[in-house]
Amino acid sequence: MSQTAQWNFDMSDNFKRTFLFLAIFQTLHSVEEYVFELWMHLYPARFLSNLVSDDLSLGFATINSAIVVLIFCSYAALLRNPTPSMSIIAWFWAILETLNGVGHLWFGILSGGYFPGLYTAPFLLLLGGVLLRQLMAGHPAS
């Protein structure tokens, strides 16, 4: 065996499918957050939206549109170039979306009811967790 770790980035059909579903559910999640006006319920969302536009709904839509474009661009990049360095992108999205799912579920619990993004949060948590498990199964092998 070699002294250096070999990165075995698994780009199986299951991995590709999981990442694609994660991107789709992030899109649905962004729509849910917009429809139920997350920026009115969460100060960081309001703050960031205001940095983009004086119209908070427009600022929020712009930021979330950028997130959706980025996750689909990441998916396309991973398909084109499944190298070990590209796995960093997959790790980023898996961790971010898992935390996003946990956060919305937590805010729902704290609010004692519905919180914008709550309906799609379990899917982000599930798919992010599955993607994390798939990534851990392929890293590192010595």
Give a description of the structure.
The protein is mainly α. It has one domain. 70% of the residues lie in helices and 0% in strands. It is built from five helices and no strands. The protein has helices spanning 13-35, 43-52, 56-80, 87-111, 121-137. α1 runs antiparallel to α5 (121-137) and α3 (56-80) packs antiparallel against α4. The longest helix is centred in the middle third of the chain and has 25 residues, at 56-80. It is globular and about 40 Å long. The N and C termini lie close together (7 Å).
Multimeric organization: single chain
**Rg value:** 17 Å
**How many structural domains in the coordinates?**
1
Sequence of secondary-structure elements: HHHHH
